[in-house]
Design goal:
By secondary structure, the protein is mostly helical. The protein folds into 2 domains: 190 residues, Leucine-rich Repeat Variant (Alpha Horseshoe); 119 residues. It is built from 18 helices and 4 strands. It has a two-stranded antiparallel sheet. It has a two-stranded antiparallel sheet with strand order 3-4. Helix 6 packs antiparallel against helix 7. The longest helix is centred in the C-terminal third of the chain and has 35 residues.
């Protein structure tokens, strides 16, 4: 009995020593790989000497998805963000474009890098220089849009400028990468607020790259995003573009996109600037005419009665040459078929304060059309109510 106890104690001691040794060895090896799982500066590997071996040794292994929390992801928690990034690049070059949890993680990494840090962006640009399949390219473009940083915006427009998004163009002239770029540019506007701060830095990049952009699809997407973010400098840029552009397609885009300045958000500074430009009707130069056109159209569609009053005040003193221009503003006012708009403008007509017969005629027609549509809508609602009530009798 005593002999068996000694044997058991000796065995336990040996196993304990072996266990501690194995733990220390695995911990040391783990520490060589696991520097941090945090996003940001800590994601940068302090010792890059082992990185090349990690990529080489794990290349095949990394292509196998890792199961985490009942879904599959390419993200390996035992590696740092940069190590995961290098492995994921290998997946992309081999044509793997599956959407997974790592896409958002990479966007977060890019967003939290210090300004001017291009450690990831040079890899992305290199990916487009090589024969990488279209799927991974679209995924990367999507990530650039989600990151919504100055650097990601600059890289996207550099890819556009360098012609790296048009190489897979179809007979209609649009490539998959171009379509992805349009979505990414619109995402810059959707990411209007980044960590509680206005996305000024991305707006500046778009301003710098917008004028002269030849790709109409991306020109339109940039115009929409610029107007939605709503920077004062972007509004000035729109005025300049209205003056300089001659392409009828671009002129149509400008008229459509410019409305985004006052829709979806309320910027008093923008409205003050618009009212100032609208008040320049006494000048007859081309720039003043353009300023009136943009400002009047925007103020007419804000949904704010005070903005509409500003347009009406302008119309009652507008010179006869501006009558046709003012016609656009009043048609725009009735875009939402608002009874309040009809009442507001009827009040001004009844006071006979609008001098132009053409403007008065347009307004009277639009008020009549609005009232007719409103009456037709009310009749339809009554008809549906009767049908509903009859079904329950």
């Amino acid at each position: 009995m005593q002999k068996n106890t000694k044997i058991m104690m000796a065995t336990t001691a040996i196993l304990t020593v072996l266990g501690v040794g194995i733990y220390l060895l695995t911990q040391e090896d783990s520490n060589a790989l696991v520097k941090t799982n945090n996003i940001g500066n800590d994601a940068i590997i302090k010792d890059n000497s082992n990185l090349k071996n990690i990529v080489s040794n794990n290349k095949n292994k990394s292509l196998k998805k890792i199961k985490q929390n009942d879904y599959y992801s390419h993200y390996n928690p035992k590696l740092t963000n940069l190590e995961n990034w290098k492995l994921w690049l290998n997946n992309l070059k081999n044509g793997d474009s599956s959407y997974n949890n790592f896409e958002k993680r990479i966007a977060d990494i890019l967003r939290s890098l210090p300004a001017g840090d291009n450690i990831f962006y040079s890899d992305i640009y290199d990916l487009f220089l090589h024969d990488t399949p279209s799927g991974p390219k679209k995924l990367i473009i999507s990530i650039l849009g989600s990151a919504a940083t100055k650097e990601s915006a600059e890289l996207l427009y550099k890819l556009i400028d360098d012609g790296l998004l048009i190489e897979v163009g179809d007979k209609h002239g649009s490539s998959d990468e171009e379509l992805a770029a349009r979505g990414a540019i619109r995402r810059f506007a959707n990411q209007k607020w980044v960590y509680g701060k206005p996305n000024h830095h991305v707006a500046k990049v778009m301003e710098k790259n917008w004028q002269g952009l030849q790709n109409i699809m991306l020109y339109h997407a940039t115009a929409d995003s610029l107007a939605y973010i709503g920077e004062d400098s972007s509004l000035d840029l729109f005025f300049d573009e209205f003056l300089s552009v001659t392409d009828p397609i671009k002129i149509k885009i400008l008229n459509q996109s410019v409305k985004n300045f006052t829709r979806g958000h309320n910027n008093p500074q923008i409205k003050d600037k618009l009212k100032h430009h609208l008040g320049s009707f006494k000048k007859n130069d081309e720039r003043s005419r353009i300023q009136r056109q943009v400002s009047g159209l925007l103020l007419a569609t804000t949904g704010d009665a005070r903005d509409k009053e500003a347009v009406l005040r302008w119309a009652q003193e507008a010179p006869g040459t501006d009558a046709e221009q003012a016609r656009e503003f009043f048609i725009a006012m009735f875009e939402y078929d608002s009874r309040e708009d009809s009442d507001l403008i009827s009040k001004h007509i009844s006071r006979e304060r609008i001098n132009s017969p053409l403007i008065r005629q347009v307004i009277e027609e639009e008020i009549a059309n609005t009232n007719n549509r409103q009456q037709a809508y009310e009749k339809e609602m009554q008809r549906q109510d009767r049908l509903y009530n009859n079904n329950w009798k």
